[in-house]
Write a structure and sequence with these properties.
Length: about 325
């Protein structure tokens, strides 16, 4: 549902890495496939291919990546849910189909309890930008404009229900403000609208729009993560900017999942391999290029995190009165 080739993060993980011990001895009986519920080229796909390469080298067994894009990531997720729980079918999922979708889609063909969270991989924030013609140099000044003109100032997103839509929705809810949503089909058309001045603000993937920020074509007001980001050290985190936004913390995230009945031995073994991948210097360097950070932690901690994200976005979506049909 969401791509992260252009995302970044500084938020430190809150979960500790565990060592599953002898569970690491598990190996698949045959070829493993990792389903990607998104198109090739985005961070979901990139992360799956990094993991596939790592697992194939470790096991000496073919590990293939299969892209099953469509319906906001729900098509690929459903295929994984229906697979045999033997460790040969896994999925590299993300914030969309694994948290937002449960509240966004009224006829979602799977449930959260049909999916086993295995390990987090990478996460990162978006960034709030305005067109230079907008007379706001801070979030507080933008909030004042929004409150002075309720429901009249337009903002762009990369699509209804995307993180670039729900991030500003959460901001507006916290501020008690209203604006006009202009959904576009992807980041490129959304950026065209903000550059042309047809919309006042946009919350987009950090690394996708940072070139425009550096060139002065848009003005960055805040990053959405709990902490500032190394790529824009002078730009505050949203929660720094106003008391009303003190609890604001949004990161797009990605992780490994399997069918719910996957044995704990397999879950722990896979988690250990993901943690080994995250610890490699080459992985950390690649994540920095993507603008993200790793998500170390054991399966239970990742499951708790996923449940918290489901609850968080469910509240935002219900308050907004937003629902779509899956498919």
């Amino acid at each position: 549902m969401v791509a992260f080739t252009r995302r970044a993060a500084i938020a430190a993980p809150l979960i500790a890495v565990s060592s599953p011990g002898r569970a690491q001895a598990w190996r698949p009986a045959g070829q493993v496939r990792i389903i990607v519920p998104a198109a090739a080229g985005g961070t979901t796909d990139i992360m799956a291919r990094l993991l596939a390469q790592h697992l194939q080298a470790k096991w000496g067994t073919p590990v293939v990546v299969e892209n099953r894009a469509g319906a906001g990531g729900t098509i690929g997720t459903l295929e994984m849910v229906r697979a045999r729980p033997d460790g040969t079918t896994l999925m590299l999922g993300n914030i969309g189909p694994q948290s937002i979708a449960y509240s966004l889609f009224r006829n979602l063909p799977y449930r959260a309890d049909q999916i086993a969270p295995i390990a987090g991989t990478i996460r990162g924030p978006n960034v709030l930008v305005v067109n230079p013609s907008v007379p706001a140099r801070t979030v507080a000044e933008l909030a004042a404009l929004l409150r002075a003109q309720p429901g009249r100032i337009p903002y762009a997103s990369t699509g209804v229900g995307q993180s670039t839509h729900l991030s500003p929705v959460l901001m507006l809810q916290m501020l008690g403000a209203e604006a006009i949503h202009v959904p576009l089909r992807g980041s490129a058309p959304a950026q065209i609208e903000i550059l042309a001045g047809n919309v006042a603000f946009l919350i987009d993937n950090l690394t996708g729009i940072i070139g425009h920020i550096q060139a002065g074509r848009v003005r960055a007001l805040a990053v959405t993560s709990a902490e500032r980001h190394a790529l824009l050290p002078e730009v505050p985190a949203m929660r720094e900017t106003m008391p009303e936004l003190a609890a604001y913390d949004v990161n797009t995230w990605f992780g490994l999942f399997g069918p719910a009945a996957l044995p704990s031995e397999i879950v722990n073994s896979l988690n250990a391999e993901v943690m080994a991948l995250l610890a490699l210097p080459d992985t950390r360097r690649r994540f920095a290029e993507l603008g993200g950070v790793g998500m170390p932690g054991n399966p239970d901690a990742f499951a708790v995190f996923v449940r918290s994200e489901i609850a968080k976005w469910g509240e935002v979506i219900r308050k907004e009165g937003l629902q779509l049909d899956a498919g």
